[in-house]
Automatic annotation (TrEMBL):
<protein>
    <submittedName>
        <fullName>D-glutamate cyclase, mitochondrial</fullName>
    </submittedName>
</protein>
<dbReference type="Pfam" id="PF14336">
    <property type="entry name" value="GLUCM-like_C"/>
</dbReference>
<feature type="domain" description="D-glutamate cyclase-like C-terminal">
    <location>
        <begin position="11"/>
        <end position="278"/>
    </location>
</feature>
<dbReference type="InterPro" id="IPR025504">
    <property type="entry name" value="GLUCM_C"/>
</dbReference>
């Protein structure tokens, strides 16, 4: 079935085929939110920490949405000379280490209680000398200090409290697609009125927020905007991205939309995902030609 990835802008494309209603939040962010976030990356040089990994309760595994977008961003920033570290928890850390090899360090942040997590966050920030935080598809705590999935089921005991990394005033960019991710605190008051979005959204805020129908697409959109700003196409190829998602599934990751170990991302096939990424390539190539 042909998908309707229509649109004249990066923002239009990554909010195409919206199955949850996240595009209803678009009036509450800047029109050019991808470009603003990309410019923010350039305006804040130095070491970057990228946070990702979302636990799927029904599968006991992490999902295919998040890490591919994180790695696309990280690879792009490394191409621009930036030092990148990835931060996740034990559900995602072994696989991410395998996929990245010696390209970047992966930190396994402990799943622990409030005080221990705060201490771990402070120590990690000090150790990494982090200048910029980027979070993509990472569950954030709500106003009740609980981590909920899109079915409003409590996944606190399976989720490292990576929100605390955002309490030190470090410049930050966030990407989300459902309302329960770190960064969606920027639009928290507007989330409950949308039927398919959470009644108890995440509250952690970021300096620049990217919305997308699928968080990976938000990552690709951020890289596309960055590419246009620097005059170089930094996007992963469709083939490279497809290989990564395939490897993730082979290693046990699941489709977040169904909880099934299949070659999908949020109920989209690899072909549909590749179609969107291909459109972003076309947009970038036209802009920098």
């Amino acid at each position: 079935m042909a998908m309707n990835f229509a649109g004249e802008t990066i923002e239009d494309i990554i909010l195409s085929e919206d199955k949850r209603g996240v595009s209803e939040l678009r009036p509450f962010v800047p029109v050019d939110f991808c470009e603003q976030a990309a410019q923010y990356l350039l305006d804040h040089p130095g070491r970057v920490a990228i946070i990702t990994g979302f636990y799927i309760l029904t599968a006991g595994q992490h999902e295919t949405d998040g890490p591919p977008g994180a790695i696309a961003i990280g690879n792009a920033l490394q191409e621009l000379g930036r030092e990148v570290t990835y931060i996740t928890d034990y559900h995602s850390a072994p696989m991410m280490s395998e996929w990245l090899g010696d390209r970047a360090a992966v930190v396994d942040f402990p799943i622990a209680g409030d005080e221990a997590s705060r201490q771990a966050a402070k120590q990690l920030i000090d150790d990494l000398h982090t200048d910029l935080l980027v979070t993509i598809e990472r569950c954030g705590r709500n106003a009740g200090d609980v981590y909920l999935n899109m079915l409003s089921r409590d996944i606190t005991e399976y989720t490292a409290r990576l929100d605390y990394l955002f309490e030190f005033g470090i410049p930050s960019v966030g990407i989300g697609d459902g309302g329960n991710e770190i960064g969606m605190g920027n639009v928290a008051e507007h989330i409950p009125p949308v039927d398919r979005l959470p009644d108890e959204p995440a509250i952690t805020e970021v300096d620049r927020l990217v919305l997308a129908s699928v968080s990976n697409w938000g990552g690709y959109g951020l890289v596309a905007a960055l590419s246009r700003l620097v005059g170089r196409n930094l996007l992963p190829s469709v083939e490279e991205d497809t290989r990564l998602i395939t490897q993730m599934v082979n290693d046990g990751a699941v489709d977040g939309g169904s909880g099934i170990n299949r070659y999908y991302v949020d109920n989209f096939t690899l072909e549909e995902n590749g179609e969107l990424l291909g459109l972003l390539h076309e947009l970038v190539d036209r802009a920098i030609a």
